Amino acid sequence: MDGQIVPLSRIGTSSKTQHSSLLKSNKQFALYNHLKLYHMKKVLLGCIISASLFSCQTSNVASTQSSNEGIRSGYNLEKTANTELVLKSVKALENLDVETYKSYFSADAKFHDNSETTNLEQNASIIGLLKSKGISPKFTSVSPIWEYVYEKNVKQGNPAIHYVISYQHGELSQGTKKVPLTIIAVDRIKDGKIVEEFLTYDTKGLMELLK
């Protein structure tokens, strides 16, 4: 039988059994290799996904830390000569004292009153208008109030820029009428004088009293 091709039907029982076992063994080996390769692919894919996730998380943490740290441009102070200057100007306004009020500002001070730009004389004229209408301002608190010293991008040899930020809470009264008043103010101060002032407030109550 050497060199002859023998049909499977003519192989003896023992040979059939051996051949069957061999086929079964080969199939099991092939299945084992397939499962092993599949498992290795899953492990490799899992490693890639884990590495990607870790990379994203690390990037997000680094980004968050960088964002939270920010860039130092200056520093804040409380209870300074400049915050006291602003408090004095608020008190002079409350007392409707024009001359004292004007003394806290530089002669060329600029005002941005709800985005309308005015000079010192125009701003101080509001006090005369309140007097003529019998309107009295009363501030119950000025809080919070703090000074911010801006140092970033300041030219060498020039002093830092000083701002005072304040929230002024109170009311306007005219006889028995009363309307709430809250002013958000940012004052730029130089050499002990207010040189620029930004004011934001709701004018609805004031307009009602001025009718």
Report on the architecture of this protein.
- A seven-stranded mixed sheet has the order 1-4-5-6-7-2-3.
- The protein has helices spanning 13-69, 81-94, 98-102, 120-132, 204-210, and strands at residues 74-77, 105-113, 116-119, 136-150, 161-174, 177-190, 193-201.
- By secondary structure, the protein is an alpha+beta fold.
- The radius of gyration is 42 Å and the shape is globular.
- 11% of the residues are buried.
- The chain is built from five helices and seven strands, in the order αβααββαββββα.
Quick overview:
The chain is of the alpha+beta class.
Task: Write down the CATH class of the largest domain.
Answer: Alpha Beta
Shape: globular
Distance between the termini: 125 Å
How much strand content do the residues show?
25-35%
Structural class: alpha+beta
Major sheet summary line: 7 strands, mixed
CATH architecture classification name of the largest domain: Roll
Task: Describe the secondary structure blueprint for this structure.
Layout: H1 13-69, E1 74-77, H2 81-94, H3 98-102, E2 105-113, E3 116-119, H4 120-132, E4 136-150, E5 161-174, E6 177-190, E7 193-201, H5 204-210
Parallel strand pairs: 2-7
Antiparallel strand pairs: 1-4, 2-3, 4-5, 5-6, 6-7
